[in-house]
Design a protein that fits this description.
Blueprint (H helix, E strand, L loop, with lengths): L1 H12 L1 E5 L10 E5 L1 H4 L37 E4 L4 E3 L5 E10 L9 H12 L16 E9 L8 E8 L10 E8 L6 E8 L5 E4 L4 E4 L4 E10 L13 E6 L6 H14 L4 E3 L5 E5 L9 H9 L2 E4 L4 E5 L4 E4 L4 E2 L2 E3 L4 E12 L10 E12 L5 E3 L5 H11 L3 H14 L2 E2 L1 E4 L1
Parallel strand pairs: 17-25
Antiparallel strand pairs: 1-2, 3-16, 4-13, 5-6, 5-8, 6-7, 7-12, 8-9, 9-12, 10-11, 13-15, 14-15, 17-18, 19-24, 20-23, 21-22
């Protein structure tokens, strides 16, 4: 019985069966030969276990210094009034609607809302199809929007943008069905849009890999919208005034004074600043014909004034962008900064036991944690009275743009940075 059991397990345990022809053993004619190299080791050899480790590194690239062809001109800049102000009554208008993009190559929505919208579209053509019989893989529900410039007339074309609302993965190759774009109330249709959607990228995918360039869930329709309703605009109010609103990037009292003086030098006593210091009111002469309103406004907007530099720092934490105005200054102070780099590496390994060992397959995880903290010394930052000196002081710190954003915010709160910080 024991010999029979060993023979049945021979293919698994490395055992071989042979016919004994010797006569000095005194045993049976048949027997089992055991390979000592395998059996004497205490059991069957276990399979090789995984030993791969995951890694995580944080690197800091070398700083690249831009090369300027000439010395920057930090003097006051002369510019036209039209670059500093906008004419009230000539604003752009935004309209929006919900539409349906068809003709997608299996990259559409998977939700039932796309099917319902397609069913409603078919009902407008007296086609009644049960919603259960519709497929949404080739259609996508999108938000359609357009910007109507001031003074545009019915029949003219405008560009249209379409962006997905559901889980559609791409609008590439799709066509927007006829969509009505309305104002915020939804009662008046100002634009109708339709046509092929242009996507500024591509997306290809397989079972285990994919490649995507730019955003393929947002597309444009160049000239895809037609103006249906006119929005009345006028550069001169019913009270006979031309209102010049200073743009947010230039809304300083100095710019208001310069614009007012330049207009009054051309047309005496017609311009005055508003009480809030954000706009200039220009009185149109009573004897000026309405046909000359445009020429009158053009003569004012083409005047050049000395634009006042703004002590302002614009930062964007998401992209690490920092832009400084010409009047940014620094007070003397002591500055230090230290980078804290934390590297975490997670490794999951599966332990596979050997045959007949009685063990179970287990997954074990391990974590490698590496923390590096820079030991930076205190830096005495001298005061900076020009923009070039500000750049020189900040370059001495040698920080990355993202660290510089945090540093600028701290300097502004301490009063070292003499500028206003605005976040994009």
């Amino acid at each position: 019985m024991y010999a029979i059991l060993l023979l049945s397990l021979a293919p698994f345990m490395g055992l071989t069966s042979s016919q004994d022809t010797g006569g000095d053993t005194g045993g049976d004619q048949g027997g089992v030969v055991i390979d000592p190299a395998i059996w004497t080791g205490g059991g069957i050899e276990a399979p090789t276990q995984p030993n791969r480790k995951s890694t995580s590194n944080v690197r800091r690239s070398r700083r690249t210094a831009p090369i300027l062809d000439r010395t920057p001109n930090l003097q006051a800049t002369q510019t036209k009034i039209t670059s500093l102000v906008s004419v009230r009554g000539m604003e752009d208008n935004h309209v929006m609607g919900i539409g349906l993009v068809t003709g997608l190559a299996g990259t559409g929505d998977s939700s039932s809302s796309a099917k319902l919208l397609l069913q409603n579209l078919l009902l407008t053509r007296n086609i009644n199809v049960d919603v259960q019989d519709l497929s949404s893989k080739n259609i996508a529900v999108v938000r359609v929007e357009a910007t109507i410039p001031a003074g545009i007339r019915p029949g003219q074309r405008v560009d249209v943008r379409a962006s997905t609302i559901g889980d559609a993965s791409s609008l590439e190759g799709g066509t927007l069905a006829m969509t009505e774009l309305t104002d915020v109330s939804g009662r008046f249709v100002f634009v109708t849009a339709s046509g092929p959607v242009t996507v500024g990228g591509f997306s290809f995918s397989g079972e285990n890999a994919s490649a995507t360039r730019n955003h393929v869930t947002v597309g444009t329709l160049p000239g895809g919208g037609k103006i249906e309703r006119e929005i009345e605009t006028s550069i001169v109010s019913e009270h006979g005034y031309l209102y010049l609103d200073v743009r947010a990037a230039h809304d300083t009292l100095g710019n208001i004074v310069h614009i007012t003086d330049a207009i009054n030098n051309l047309y005496p006593q017609v311009a005055r600043p508003s009480n809030d210091g954000k706009s200039v009111h220009v009185r149109v002469p009573d004897d000026l014909p309405k046909n000359d309103y445009v020429a009158f406004a053009h003569s004012i907007l083409s005047r050049e004034v000395r634009a006042e530099s703004v002590a302002r720092v614009i930062i964007n934490e998401r992209s690490g962008v920092i832009v400084m105005g010409g009047d940014v200054r620094l007070q003397p102070g002591i500055i230090t900064h230290g980078n804290l780099t934390v590297t975490i590496a997670e490794t999951n390994e599966t332990s596979q036991p050997g045959a007949f060992s009685g063990g179970t397959t287990q997954t074990q995880g391990s974590t490698d944690l590496d923390v590096v903290e820079e030991d930076s010394a205190l830096i005495l930052a001298p005061g900076a009275s020009t923009l070039q000196e500000v750049v020189d002081v900040l370059n001495v710190l040698g920080t990355t743009p993202r660290d510089m954003i945090t540093l600028l915010q701290a300097m502004s709160q301490s009063g070292t940075l003499l500028a206003e910080i605005r976040r994009m």
